[in-house]
Amino acid sequence: MTLPGRNVIFRVGILLAALCLLAIIAASFIVVPVYSVMETENTRRSDGFFQAIIIPFLGNNLFAVHAAIIASAMYALFSIILTYSFFEKTQSPEILFIVFFVSSFALEAVRLLLPLSYVYEIPSLYLLMAFRILLFGRCFGIFSLFIASVYAAGFNVQKQRTVLLVIAGATLIITLGVPIDTQTWDSTLNTISGHTSLFRLIEAGTFFITIISFFIAAWSRGTTEYTRIGLGTVLVYVGRNLLIFGDTWAGPVVGLPLLAAGTWLICTQLHKIYLWL
């Protein structure tokens, strides 16, 4: 993909993240007063490895979840802007897929449809479609980061559009086949979907392979920058899980800095690698 074409995608990502952030801010005036009611009606807490560690010490808080949703959109917006400024004139096959991963966080705004449904009559079909889009964004983001690591390890395909179509098609098949219950939700404002444990396992496995691929790239290319990128991916994985699946203040307070630090480490090291090419 040419630099001008890739930069157009960057600008579209910035616009998407900005619109999602504005939508979250506008919806906040409506949904925040509803949280006190919702907390009394739902006792199902989000699961996951990091949640299992946190749950014995911290109670769930929908205001913290709301702050995490805002943080997700802000992270997406500012990360894409900074990436665009860093790589506007620098070619890197990995950075396009990293931006797709970052952009997926803007779609966390969809979660606010649940509290909005307490105020307005939102048909279940719309909720179903919206949360399938959210699930698609999360899966597509993870697979995009994985593809970035494969490129770093030596995968050389010039037609990035073909790769994008393949992972988009695979993600679409997965998200359309997953049952989603729009009437049931957990403490992170996520609807309950089928095969949750399997999805978490696939997610963790994909991140693990991604990290290993960056370390392989460091060994095969003889550069320490890819080692730092692999370490940055570890921070991204932990921060992402705390921010998206956490229902306490640990999400925005701990998860966002880890996610931002990991992203900064990945992008700065990639820029260092490709700066003089």
What distance lies between the first and last C-alpha atoms, to the nearest angstrom?
16 Å
> Helix proportion of residues, in percent?
over 70%
The number of helices is 11
- What structural class should be given to the helix and strand makeup? mainly alpha
- Describe the oligomeric state of these chains in a short phrase: single chain
Strand content: under 5%
Mean pLDDT: 87
Order of helices and strands: HHHHHHHHEEHHH
Our Rg estimate from Cα atoms comes to 19 Å
Q: Characterize the biggest β-sheet.
A: 2 strands, antiparallel
Number of strands: 2
Enumerate the spans where pLDDT stays under 50 for 5 or more consecutive residues: none
Strand order of the largest sheet: 1-2
Overall form: globular
Give the secondary structure arrangement, pairings included.
Elements: H1 3-31, H2 35-41, H3 49-54, H4 62-87, H5 93-103, H6 113-119, H7 124-152, H8 160-177, E1 180-185, E2 191-193, H9 196-221, H10 225-245, H11 250-274
Antiparallel strand pairs: 1-2
Structure commentary:
The mean pLDDT is 87. Strands 1-2 form a two-stranded antiparallel ribbon. Helix 1 packs parallel to helix 5 (93-103). With 277 residues, it is mainly alpha-helical. The longest helix has 29 residues, at 3-31. It is built from eleven helices and two strands. The protein is 74% helix and 3% strand. The chain has helices at 3-31, 35-41, 49-54, 62-87, 93-103, 113-119, 124-152, 160-177, 196-221, 225-245, 250-274; strands at 180-185, 191-193. It is globular. Strand 1 (180-185) and strand 2 (191-193) form a beta hairpin.
